[in-house]
Amino acid sequence: MGENGKRRIRLGMVGGGQDSFIGYVHRIAARLDGEFELVAGALSSRPEVARESARLLGISPERAYTDFEEMARVESGLENGIEAVAIVTPNHVHFGPAKAFLEAGIHVICDKPLTSRLEEALALAEVVPKNNAKFLLTHNYTGYPLVRQAREMVAGGLLGNIRVIQVEYPQDWLTEEVHNKQADWRTDPEKSGTGGCVGDIGTHAYNLLRFVTGLETEALCADLATFVPGRMLDDNVHIMLRFKGGAKGMLWASQVAPGNENALKLRVYGDKGGLEWRQENPNQMWFSPFGKPRQLITRGGVPAGGGEGAPVRIPAGHPEGYLEAFATLYSEFAAVIRAEEDGALLPTLGDGVEGMRFIVAAVTSSNNDSQWTALE
Amino acid sequence: MGENGKRRIRLGMVGGGQDSFIGYVHRIAARLDGEFELVAGALSSRPEVARESARLLGISPERAYTDFEEMARVESGLENGIEAVAIVTPNHVHFGPAKAFLEAGIHVICDKPLTSRLEEALALAEVVPKNNAKFLLTHNYTGYPLVRQAREMVAGGLLGNIRVIQVEYPQDWLTEEVHNKQADWRTDPEKSGTGGCVGDIGTHAYNLLRFVTGLETEALCADLATFVPGRMLDDNVHIMLRFKGGAKGMLWASQVAPGNENALKLRVYGDKGGLEWRQENPNQMWFSPFGKPRQLITRGGVPAGGGEGAPVRIPAGHPEGYLEAFATLYSEFAAVIRAEEDGALLPTLGDGVEGMRFIVAAVTSSNNDSQWTALE
Amino acid sequence: MGENGKRRIRLGMVGGGQDSFIGYVHRIAARLDGEFELVAGALSSRPEVARESARLLGISPERAYTDFEEMARVESGLENGIEAVAIVTPNHVHFGPAKAFLEAGIHVICDKPLTSRLEEALALAEVVPKNNAKFLLTHNYTGYPLVRQAREMVAGGLLGNIRVIQVEYPQDWLTEEVHNKQADWRTDPEKSGTGGCVGDIGTHAYNLLRFVTGLETEALCADLATFVPGRMLDDNVHIMLRFKGGAKGMLWASQVAPGNENALKLRVYGDKGGLEWRQENPNQMWFSPFGKPRQLITRGGVPAGGGEGAPVRIPAGHPEGYLEAFATLYSEFAAVIRAEEDGALLPTLGDGVEGMRFIVAAVTSSNNDSQWTALE
Amino acid sequence: MGENGKRRIRLGMVGGGQDSFIGYVHRIAARLDGEFELVAGALSSRPEVARESARLLGISPERAYTDFEEMARVESGLENGIEAVAIVTPNHVHFGPAKAFLEAGIHVICDKPLTSRLEEALALAEVVPKNNAKFLLTHNYTGYPLVRQAREMVAGGLLGNIRVIQVEYPQDWLTEEVHNKQADWRTDPEKSGTGGCVGDIGTHAYNLLRFVTGLETEALCADLATFVPGRMLDDNVHIMLRFKGGAKGMLWASQVAPGNENALKLRVYGDKGGLEWRQENPNQMWFSPFGKPRQLITRGGVPAGGGEGAPVRIPAGHPEGYLEAFATLYSEFAAVIRAEEDGALLPTLGDGVEGMRFIVAAVTSSNNDSQWTALE
Predict the structure, then answer these.
(1) Same structural domain for residues D222 and D121?
(2) ipTM entry
(3) Residue C56 is nearest to which of D5, D38, D316, comparing CB atoms?
(4) How far is CA C349 from CA C90, C98, C121, C136, C327, in A?
(5) Which residues of B touch C263 (CB under 8 A)?
(6) Same domain, C209 and C71
(7) pTM, rounded to two decimals
(8) A261/B301 CB distance under 8 A
(9) Which one of B14, B65, B263, C79 is least enclosed by Cβ atoms within 10 Å?
(10) In 3D, which of B82, B173, B137 has the Cα closest to residue B343?
(11) Chain D residues close to B293, C-beta within 8 Å
(12) Closest to C58 (Cβ–Cβ): which among D1, D313, D318?
């Protein structure tokens, strides 16, 4: 039931069983444009949950696995085995499945951050995928049309030389000690890795600024904090950034800022103009050409001079949201899988390695009295 | 690939061929939660367009019809024929298909307004559906979670007795004379009916205020205008309203208000508090209990005291939009079709008749020097 | 201590004793630019209050009157008597003082609405002022820089031919029955006149739309309501408007809309563009040229092409407010008094008569089942 | 013409001649509540400008000085000499006049930053004022009613223990090289001191966060930048902060951020709630009690539970702005001069010294590869 006359791509999923937030999101993203069909899964390591979750999703019992390695092996041998797999497990269970499926010649769609440790990320980057299997990292915010347009506007010179970048990603859901499926693994170094807030949402903020500006980081200077007593990972992140070419930036991420739900915001300033975009109202963006009135750019609306706009599903004023942005990554990856597009805008395994370097540099700098630290 | 272990409902579509806006929207809405599968269509009355549109949508050639009556007849006779049909044609082609499919025992999902003339609407209301076939009118704005929550808050007495309702729906896309598929039929009395702007978006605004407040209209006083020379239908709508019980309202709809994309907004004021919701940023709503600070209610966020919130797919701060609201109607209708839910919140054929009465009353009042006119 | 080397104008005040809101506002407005000096007053009809109020304001006891007629007579005979008087009494005590001071050759600054009854307004318009004494009606919202700029932009054709005007002025302070000095006279027909909400704030909204657009009203169609039991005047106003030349409008004013403090808002739409201005954040204005992105015009900021901006005291980003706008009327009137300027933008006695005709037409139409009623 | 029956305080001014921005602001602030009367000035060091400026301000020629020391000497000897003086010169001419007038027993109102060098500030703090003369530093943003209310709310525990503070003050007026009276001295180390942007607006941001939270700074980590070629002082300021007790903060100030006029914004987060206030719309403030809907607090509106609100001149919805906040400092200082109030909320010479320590620490840290640096 896609819109382009093409057969749906057969998709599997690792993780994403009952009560998973991000697995559900990936499934909607896969369905929305009709490009994928979920036919197999290792949805949980607990057999009963895996089985029941598969049943609810219409996956036939024989393709409901409890072990991702078995799944990779079996599916790669089936005539109509899965062509791609979505990995939606906690961070420490990204590396294993990603390696297994790439080596089985199955395309991988992996949630971020890439892994729980930089070493794994580097190892994953060394994997030689069978049959040129492709990799997509779901830094989903890059799928928003206005984020794409912002990137075009920067690349097209509408802002001039970039000088200052302010990015922030405050939330409040961990303001107090909290225990549930979502919170528990994110605050557990075994599962999340060395970064808490910095890995969970700091990497999104960092990826977003790099996606829009294209700047390379020279060094960062970080001050991570853990405010909630007993928590083992950072819950507030203060970082100053220096970019190659001279631009400077600030990044704030927090899980303890009451009144903030998911308030990712990016501001970019150059010598000719500025941009501001907020994830919570993603259909609008401020463009401020220096010396002229601020303009409100809208998704699907009149483009700013030189910024040609980005593809949208429905007209301006009909808000698209988080799920549509996520679905865009899936659908563009479908075109890559079909070898119709090169997916130049899609987040790569390289972006994932960069994100891990960012986490490591932030933790290292913070542990070294905020010394300027390169990403390496 | 739904989420509930249920087989997908087999769906057909009338209208919605290439270049259709609303057909595409209906298809995404049908796909998003995985509850429907499109398997047949009379997508265009032009055979070539019907055929090619079907091909792109993965509909097999033998189920690509050019005549909706044939489609109703054939599909109702198939073992695996469609269970429901989406009617997404211009207004003057709502009545025929709706009647044909209901009488064929196939559930109908029909775009608004119900028909192009009140007589058709009344006739449709008299149709006896075969096999108790159900009817859904896609007043899609009622699918937004915060609109549902607003209704609950009013019903729960958080606003007290309702006194004043201000609703508006300005757009700007018809500010100048424009010719394209979308504009042409909407400005053609043969296809659109007696109402232009009042039928296309005025009915949405009117439906929204009734959905949220539950008030019955006593009479309205209208002043319709056509500003663009040569246009044959109204493009700006000014209406004053009186409701049973004493509340009063204003409704403004316009297609000629530059700077407005799809700016549907509802404000409701009672003797204990006020509410304000805007479609273009549908994840936020103002609640103003009298004598206390205004509160910003968010979709999926902390509920206001007494308003219990409405079902959402993803957490607060992750914006859902127009397509999700539309999909909610489809998915809830799926539960109705499966006889699992009564669909108490879904827009009905009766709402469609009420909308037609609204159009007629508005045009009549406007033609009678804005005399107060009852809806009958 | 003005800024222009000119001697301060000697000012008197009628009304404005202790606990007066608007008298205090007038005094700050008179002081702010250093153009006036308050030297006399009939601040209250209660001698003790008049005396004590005068003492607090530094008015010498012999110029603290209890009778405005005596004040007009005495002051006009003094060598250094007042040159201008501010009338800040309830509506029913506007006519008497205004007539007395104009006939005594003293310039009059009068709060709005002009009088409590249209007959008084017409009679006042017939008064022949001694010594060409001038008259200022304090429709203070016309003193906001961006309101001035909006007027220029309309006059300069940036919006094209005006089609639609939406103006609203909701408040919530009378949502419940309330008794205090401010509320009591405003809800008393003896003191306020035939209009309640329509006179108190409806006239502001009406004056604002006329100031910005320059349009003449053809007729109006009104539905006034009194929601609070026992209240003797309207507290909610719904009006549709038709203007000469074909434009149409809506005006909503309310004192019973919870969550609204003083939310005067004007929107104007023409065939080339739209404007939106809100009094509660008066330093910003939307300008929407059709087919281009919306622009945020700021007070003192970069002007929109063709709109040259309006005089401001302090740079963009340093908000000016209600008092500065009010002071602008005073200071420009000072220049009129000194015969340095013609005060072309200042609200006149004619504007006051128009406001009274507006009130009468609104009440008449509402009493006649909302019949279209001309202003006469 | 004050409102309290008190004689106006006789005021002098140093600096503030024609074309001065801040001198004009101080004069309006002095006039607005009628508490001061400007009677003397050394308005410029250029005799002709001093004379003409004085004439325009109604200062008699014999009290129009060109030398502030002469002015201090002469005025302190007059029977009706000035009681207070406003110092509105560039930073490097703060110390001299402040010392001279304090030692002459004349109260001093001084613009910020306190001086151009820390040594001067420390020396000024050692001056023994004659006759217990008082000192006011015009960190004017502390005069906004909602800033006062924010301070009360923090002090009252509504936010719980403060964890994170984000303050920013972006402007865009120095995005390109610019030469005029305002820009020239601010970018000249001789006149401005060692800090450019950090002194001009960074100190405001820093003072604001301390005023609201009452926190003491432990150390800061700064990265200052100069983006415009040839500029001799910083025009962009990135600072991380650590406070005693464990709270952390970020401060961003910029003069090169296109689209920002005067966008001072403060956000404070504790374990019980958050606050957000923006100077450009100073009549509104967000209060976010954790686990409850965000509330919009308004100046003069309904107070948040426990925050009692702050004095305002006019009711909620009637915006007060920059000049009113500035005037509040003047009027409260008048009460201090009259020994009626202790002025506990007014910025002091000590605050000025703290501001200078802040500038020095920021420059030092930035020069030392962003090493954490204490304020001393």
Answers:
(1) no
(2) 0.96
(3) D5
(4) 17, 10, 8, 7, 19
(5) none
(6) no
(7) 0.97
(8) yes
(9) C79
(10) B137
(11) 287, 295-298, 301-302, 304
(12) D1
